[in-house]
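Feature request, filed as a ticket because there's no other form

It would be nice if the structure record came with a short human-readable summary line next to the tokens. Right now we just get the raw output. Example of a typical job, pasted below so the devs can see what we mean:
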Amino acid sequence: MVFPKAFIFDVEGTLIDCAAQMIDCWEHTFTKAGHQISRSELQRYSGMDGEEMLRSLLPAASTTMRQVLLEEHGRSYRRDFLDKAKGFEGAHEVVARLHEKGHTIAIATTCEDDELRRYDQMMRVLQYQIFRSNFIMTPMLMVILMEQLSIQRPQMLRASTSSIMLNRVIMS
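Raw output as currently delivered:
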């Protein structure tokens, strides 16, 4: 088995436990805009790109309306929900250990800079990153990162599940 040279971490949902806060914020944003979307319906879209989610949930909404909702969600999340998120237990230790062993650390997130700085107070991992992407994790992003880091596919691991699970693999 080839152990990866590089690890790319998603932030929200991988290093930071914020699913409940995101759902709460979307619920608040939709209600404020006059849309009634149940929590269980929102949970089905948890982790999905906001624009994609809005196209699915509100197919008749204009591009402008979707943009307004996205902007309101962002403001509301930073103001009322961001500080309620928590770093996953073990996230810092996993990333630090990988860095100590000489692995390249990359971060992929659509977070705004202020959100990412706040998240880093919870997870303390940005000091180890050598690359940050402002895109959600997609196969194309993986190809771009591999090219920029000059590595082959089996040498990179995409970490987009709970860092607790990854911790069990790395630390054992």
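Something like this underneath would help us a lot:
The domain at 6-17+86-171 is CATH 3.40.50.1000 (Rossmann fold).
Confidence is low (pLDDT under 50) at residues 161-172.
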